[in-house]
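Can you please make up a whole protein chain along with its backbone structure tokens because I've never seen that pairing?
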Amino acid sequence: MKRTSTPRRHRTAIAAALACAAALGTVATATGAQAAAPQHTANASTPYVINHYGEENADKGKAERKPENLVLSEFTSAGDLHWKQWDNKKAVATGDVTGMWCLETCLDKPLKATITLSDPKTVHGKKVYSSFTVQLAGGNGAYDSEDLKGKHALATS
């Protein structure tokens, strides 16, 4: 059996220690960057949206912030939502929209849209958005639906 010389063992130990230090430095840098980044946490005055998405929420709705899926009306739903803004005045997301008005064409291939929630008001002691607008990417085209024209009421309870 070949015996490793002392200098080689020292070099191996030093290399291992340097690798550990580099790994710890990477973790510390990433953790520090996260801590330094501004945190956008909701406070008590930031509105919710009453969401009737999902069987468990269909009847009573659920107060949520930044949901991935959202029932806008009895005719229109949005999914794969990516929220760009959520503050005291409005919430804006991009995502996919489907509705009773496009079942023939958009059930399997939802339409890209920007959804804006607005007009917060207090209902049962909770601040909630009370209106929505939908802007389809590329315009409404052949879709003639009330939900695609102007501002509409959102469920608030």
Summary: The chain has two helices and eight strands.
